[in-house]
Design goal:
4 domains, Rossmann fold, 6-stranded mixed beta sheet, globular
Length: 553
């Protein structure tokens, strides 16, 4: 029989007058791999925190006796002044809780009166905690972390390496390694956006790690590919309701579509039944207001109205979709871009960034650029646009090609301007009302359109940058992490827009689902300076590598 680890009973959570979710009933069992999805602000992280911290406003979050939990936070704090060894030895939440309980028991054992009572259960617990700490490697996290550090590609760094000397991607890996150490004794692992800021090789390693993890997992993630590979259950948080679906993310999408179709049919039938019962009641009252069957009909009507109200409450409210379409200029020739034996090096680096890159881009081609952190993906875009010049060779942009560039840090935006002013700067003849209406189609509220960019979220800035691309006359788009900060609905909207776009696209992205939906070619940078070209999307590339490996074996 499968062991139940955590159970939620009629859980309710609110912030002030705003209900985040209500009447949540969930069971987490051994072997569960649960992904939590929903649009930005729906309450995904709140649900994760409510369960892991057992702090609902109403209802109960019940843990099975003696289970151990660990939480990998979305914000991976790191001490920049520390060395690699010092950072790894900083104890994560799972070790801190064990240490706190051990300290409490040791303090009570130091009291002479400790042995006057029934002290054996506390001594047994003390021994259990010491064993747990030893098995998990908690006494020396750095020693236990060495295998993970090696697997994450950081094994060449001595433990005395200052963290300040590491790249941002490497520091993210160190923080991840510290959080993952000692999970062998954990029963339930909570993760909040674990793939954020990780490169594709590290994400692939993390997926393998989690598949081999023996405990249950509950994870919040926007990474649809990750959810497909890791999860066997999906919870969707929407409109204060939490609904569960069996299977991975792809299964969830198809089940949800079927559920909504069935729900709409049921609502239509219920509305028809309410109208029929109302009509029958009116007829009965006009014929004989003392008819005893009237109360029975009124009971049937009340029951059907309550059922209809419940069905409407769980039906997702229609959110204003991202209205996004791109038009390419018609001036581009069939040949768009050529990189001819281009090489590039940076002072201080032992290896060249690029070595004799030779590749061409044709009209309508959709190219995904992938590789680990620091291999030169963004540098390649900068070389194409002319921000960097190759040491050897050349980059030829054909006549008539108009390039639009989406920076992942949104540097093309003026952070002192509002979204309205931003667009009017690009299109000075557009009046305020037209700009506001256009921003409304990009999910901006009347308040947000007049808020300066520096006070907007990353997702809101990304939508302004995408709107700028819409208004510019481009036929070659260079995109650097275009799906960062966007929720699933927005991602699906831009995927559809890029698929319909008749111009060419070169996009750097860690979003493998996006690469599968949009790209027909993959450029792979492996850190050796060479550009490897593969036809097909990201999954085609992975399958090709698997086939090649099996042939070698």
């Amino acid at each position: 029989m499968v062991k139940e680890l955590i159970r939620l009973e009629d859980v309710h959570r609110a912030f002030g007058p705003v209900t985040v979710f209500e009447n949540v009933n969930i069971r987490i069992e051994e072997g569960d791999r649960i992904g939590i999805v929903g649009h930005n602000g729906s309450g995904k992280t709140t649900l994760l925190n409510t369960i892991s911290e057992q702090n609902p406003d109403i209802g109960e979050v019940l843990f099975a006796p003696g289970i151990r939990v660990a939480y990998l936070t979305q914000v991976r704090d790191i001490e920049d002044e520390a060395t690699l060894e010092q950072e790894l030895n900083r104890k994560g939440r799972q070790f801190a809780e064990i240490d706190e309980e051990i300290a409490e028991l040791e303090a009570s054992m130091a009291d002479p009166s400790f042995y006057d009572g029934d002290w054996q259960p506390k001594m047994d617990r003390y021994a259990e905690l010491q064993t747990m700490l030893a098995k998990s490697g908690g006494a020396n996290v750095a020693t236990r972390a060495s295998g993970i550090i090696e697997a994450l590609g950081l094994g060449h760094h001595p433990l005395s390496t200052p963290l300040q000397s590491l790249s941002g991607g490497e520091r993210a890996k160190v923080a991840l390694a510290r959080q993952l150490v000692g999970l062998s004794e954990i029963d339930v692992l909570f993760l909040d956006e674990p793939t954020n800021h990780l490169d594709l090789p590290t994400i692939a390693w993390l997926e393998k790690f989690l598949k081999e993890f023996k405990g249950a997992i509950m994870v919040v993630s926007h990474d649809r590919y990750f959810l497909d590979r890791v999860c066997n259950n999906i919870l969707e948080v929407q409109n204060t309701h939490v609904k569960g679906y069996k299977g991975n993310y792809s299964a969830f999408r198809s089940q949800k579509e079927m559920f909504l179709s069935t729900l709409d049919d049921s609502i239509a039938k219920s509305e028809k039944e309410v109208r029929r019962l109302n009509g029958a009641l009116r007829s009965m009252k006009s014929a004989n207001k003392y008819d005893k069957s009237i109360s029975q009909k009124r009971f049937m009507l009340d029951r059907e109205q309550n059922r209809l109200k419940w069905m409407k409450s769980i039906r997702p409210k229609k959110r204003k979709g991202l209205n996004f379409a791109l038009q390419a200029t018609s001036k581009s020739s069939l040949d768009v871009l050529e990189i001819n034996k281009a090489s590039l090096s940076f002072e201080g680096l032992k290896k060249p960034i690029f070595t004799q890159i030779e590749v061409a881009v044709s009209k309508g081609q959709k190219i995904g650029v992938v590789g680990g952190n620091g291999v030169g993906k963004t540098t390649l875009l900068r070389m194409i646009i002319g921000e960097l010049m190759p040491d050897e060779g050349r980059v030829v942009v054909e006549p008539g090609v108009q390039i639009g560039y989406f920076h992942q840090d949104h540097r093309t935006l003026d952070f002192d301007l509002t979204p309205v002013k931003q667009i009017q700067k690009l299109k000075p003849r557009m009046d305020y009302g037209d700009v506001r209406a256009m921003l409304g189609r990009f999910q901006f509220t009347s308040e947000q359109v007049d808020t300066i960019m520096s006070k907007l979220s990353g997702g809101e800035r990304a939508r302004v940058a995408l709107l700028k691309l819409l208004l510019e006359e481009n036929n070659l788009l260079l995109l650097d992490e275009p799906t960062n900060h966007l929720d699933t609905d927005a991602n699906e909207a831009i995927e559809e827009a890029f698929n319909q776009y008749e111009g060419s696209i070169i996009t750097v992205s860690h979003d493998r689902w996006f690469l599968d939906q949009v790209c027909d070619t993959i450029w792979f940078l492996g850190g050796d300076g060479y550009l490897h070209i593969y036809p097909g999307n990201y999954s085609d590339l992975i399958q090709r590598k698997k086939d090649a490996y099996q042939k070698v074996q």
